[in-house]
Amino acid sequence: MFKVAVTLVVSAGLAVCCAMMAVLIALVASSPTKGWSGRSLSLLDPTYASKYIPIIASVSEHQPPTWPSYFMDINVLAFLVPAGIIACFSPLSDASSFVVLYIVTSVYFSGVMVRLMLVLAPAACILSGIALSQAFDVLARSIKFQLPGFPTNSEVDAGDSNPITVEAKNNAPKTDKTGEPSKDRPSRKNKKKGKEQAERPSVKGKPEKKRLLVLPMGASILALLLLVLLSAFYVVHSVWAAAEAYSAPSIVLTSYSHDGLHVFDDFREAYAWLSHNTDVDHKVASWWDYGYQTTAMANRTVIVDNNTWNNTHIATVGTAMSSPEKAAWEIFNSLDVKYVLVVFGGLVGYPSDDINKFLWMVRIGGGVFPHIKEPDYLRDGQYRIDSEATPTMLNCLMYKLSYYRFVETGGKGFDRVRQTEIGKKYFKLTHFEEVSIHNSPLDGSDIQAETSKKQDSGKVEEIKIKI
Amino acid sequence: MEAVVGARSILAFALFSLLFLLSRSSAHQLNIVNAERRIDLTSHIVKVFLTLKVENVGTEPASEILLAFPPTQVNHLASVEALATTGKRKKKTYVPLIVTPTELPDGPNGTKYFTISLANPLNSGETTTVEVLYLLTHSLEPFPAEISQSESQLVFYKDGAMILSPYHIKQQTTFIKTPSTRVESFTMVEPTNRAGTELKYGPYEDHASYSFSPIIVHFENNNPFAVVEELVREVEISHWGSIQVREQYRLVHTGARHKGVFSRVEYQARPSHSGVSSFKHLLARLPPRVHSVYYRDEIGNISSSHLRTDSRKSELEIEPRYPLFGGWSATFVIGYGLPLQDFLFESPDGRRYLNFSFGCPLADTVVDKLTIKVVLPEGSKDPSAVVPFSVEQHLETKYSYLDVVGRTVVVLEKKNAIPVHNVPFQVYYTFKPIFMLAEPLMLASVIFLFFMACVAYLHIDLSIRK
Predict the structure, then answer these.
(1) B39 and B173 co-located in one domain
(2) Range A266-466: architecture per CATH
(3) What's the confidence (pLDDT) of residue A195?
């Protein structure tokens, strides 16, 4: 009876598993990309996103990393990883071959998308740990065996260098390696001291004896100290990177000047203004970067936010930002938008403002709405906002909202981020009304948040954060 | 028996008639020889100084003077004070008098009254001078109701040219002081003239009691109309040496509403021209030796604030995240700690009392609804509050760290609080010092029991067989 029950359960389980597998296979086979989403496909083909899905290409964390970013992120490990790979090959076991495969694949993927540096980090840590531990092994052993009064068996290995090999008794026999593993260790210490080469034929010892490498005493002490110093610097760098590069809240910008720390709190000021001085059911349209912040701090409904799951919606907002005023007003009116939030950094030189992100608005909008054509905004293949800019660019909503009355602040309308004077200086907003600009005063250079309101008579209100 | 009953009824009748006569005659016993009223309209809290020279023309000595107010003003009346002046010129001394609201149902048109009780009754034929100060809130009505950023704020002030009084006033004058020389219009009730920032109505001679001729003054007032709609102050007493105060504000600008664009560029470029009726700084006066001051709102810390301390006072200057224009509001929380020995004392009958200042520490603001909660330490009994003016009191319980029975909270509520109300008040309670040991004993016993349990567990042999 027991056996019957067992077979019954097993067969039922197998049947269910097969059914699920069949369903899964059917689902995967029926999708055009065979189950891969856009982001994963861009890992396999790095040009996929920029061709078909510009919104994935627009996220800065999806770009390939630069070489310095490797050093910034994993620092010292960049040198230790190759040493660790070599160390894994002596001896090559299942575990060490797994680690080698892990590091090779993670290096490839992190090279495709900088966000995947996270995947590289554990692999790099493992391998550099292996390398460091092997190095410490050799150096400590060298010191131990050369301390006065320590019984040693010395046999010199045939190598291309000066070190003396020591045969250690009672070591468990390891697989093959007689002379090659020691090559990479002394090669690093070659430059430290010059000594005479001692060459003797390698002696094949008994199976339980292993040839181990011993370096000169002075060299090994120095090497040990230097390795410890290297690790200390690594710790210092990691703490600094965590504090400065990874902990900076992008919502509060700080700058150090001669009289201390200046805090640019404009984002929070604009969000606080929105939360207190607008009605609860007024909707705010902005680029998707500010979606979560607006929802959390200003407590207002947004049109698109950082989740970016609806590409068409984002493309609609992008199209509205790239269209002339009347068309943009119609789009925003259909979305029941009351306020438009724009971030502008030209006054003080804040580079991550909406004009710099404008090219992605055009591309993403153009990806869904074909009447937005990117070449209309380019002059000689470049986005310009000065007098050489195309008329489409000078008439689009983003330009108008950012530079409305910009000349009144400085006199000439010089945009510090783009480093040019703006093209169209004097114009009026016909369908939008500027409601408020927020900035924190810093000797005349300000971050401004402009809020424009939409009126029932047909004007959309605009909120601008000028930084 | 009948004689006694008869005597009683006669006595009762006599008493009633006497009282009736007295109440009737007290209204007409006094005459005001000279009345001078100075209305100060410089800030959004209206200050009115009345100087009354009262003569007793009746036969009975009078010990009370009635003050009358129109019903619209009474709702906005935040405080009434009276002083009796004696002596002349340089040797004037002021004696504060008690003012209580009274109900006189026979007042015309719903007039409300306050009674000033004189220290010494005024004999027949004598005169005395009384100075009255009363403060009105929410009495300036902005007109136009909406202004843009570059416009100045104009408000109405409505009052009467003559002082409303149940007595006959022989001669009276009213002076109105405006904050600037810009007065758009004012009602002319002869004789009226205007010189600079002062409007003079009067002198009016021999007007009957309860005479009232309404006037409206339309003038410019750009002082900050800062009103705190709701303020909750929580004062937590801890016998281990500190008082923690936490205040939650909802601040509103009640002047003319802002319409149109708010442009920071213009606001900062030309501060004398743009946004003149807005305000961006608020000054909070805190007691000296204050520590751990924080200023936050729902989003987080607000970095724009300055704290200046010295040995007698501390000043916290706060800037809300954006300047407040008409109709805009901001909410924030201010918290600070104070040393206990400055505020907690022992009264002669063995009870402890907290001596703290009532009212809002922000200067020159009106608080529509002020709630003060004094959280007494656990184990306090018989709480009672002594406040120099009328407040609503009740008790609550609050559960905080290491509380078993909860802490008693004395809740005091007041409507329409102004800086005049920043006077000390006391909360008395009894507390046996032995209760202070409750918390450390609780912690020590918990740790002790835990270690005992560990020791017991390690040493108990629970195996079934050896």
Answers:
(1) yes
(2) 3-Layer(aba) Sandwich (3.40)
(3) 39
Q: Which residues in chain A are contacts of B261 at CB distance < 8 A?
A: 433-436
Strand pairing of B366-375 and B226-238? parallel
C-alpha neighbours within 13 Å on the C-beta side of residue A328: 32
The helix/strand/coil state of B224 is coil
pLDDT in tens, B88-139: 666 667 777 878 877 777 777 778 888 888 888 888 888 888 889 999 999 8
Residue B442 within a domain = no
Check CB contact of A62 with chain B, cutoff 8 Å: no
Show residues of chain B in contact with A275, CB under 8 Å.
298
B259-314 pLDDT, tens digit per residue, is 877 777 778 777 788 888 888 889 999 999 999 999 998 888 888 888 999 999 99
Size of interface A-B (CB pairs under 8 A): 60
User: What whole-number distance in Å separates Cα of residue A358 and Cα of residue A58?
Assistant: 11
Token output for A103: 């590091």
The answer to the question of residue B445 being in a domain is: no
- Which residue in A255, A277, A451 has the most chain B C-beta atoms within 10 A of its own C-beta, making it the best mutation to test that interface? A277
Q: Are residues B216 and B242 in the same domain?
A: no
- The parent domain of residue B241 ranges over 226-434
The tally of CA atoms less than 13 A away on the side-chain side of residue A54 is 18
Distance in angstroms (rounded) separating the CA atoms of residues B314 and A4: 87
Is the CB of residue B263 less than 8 Å away from at least one CB of chain A? yes
Q: Does residue B156 share a domain with residue B88? A: yes
B425: domain CATH number? Answer: 2.60.40.1730
Bridge partners (DSSP) listed for residue A361: none
Average per-residue pLDDT for chain A: 78
Quote the CA–CA distance of B37 and B49 in Å, as a whole number.
6
User: Which three-class secondary structure state does DSSP give residue A418?
Assistant: coil
Asked if the C-beta of B322 comes within 8 angstroms of chain A's C-beta atoms, the answer is yes
Q: Is residue B115 part of a domain?
A: yes
Tell which B residues from 424 to 463 touch A, by Cβ distance under 8 Å.
none
CA distances from B286 to B252, B333, B374, B466 (A): 21, 15, 17, 72
ipTM: 0.76
